[in-house]
Structure prediction request, 82 residues.
Amino acid sequence: MGSYYQYANRLAHLHLLRAENGISAHLIFPYLVNAVDVSGPSSVEEWKPAINEAHRALKIGNGPLSEYTYDVFVDVRDLSKA
Prediction:
């Protein structure tokens, strides 16, 4: 799993909560956009290929957990106005 260990670990926890313990859990993956002070993707268009690569590397398709996972893109410019 290498670089996707944390991603896989979160999915494993979701599986344990839902399938093994009957807890109606959901998993949100937050992605920051327009964050100029960190390295990495800075737009939704840049994040999507990175997310797709993680799914490809982990062989994640539309599996049983896919309906309980959500990608949320947070524009940090909006946070500075709050």
The first strand starts at residue 27 and ends at 33. Strands lie at 27-33, 69-75.
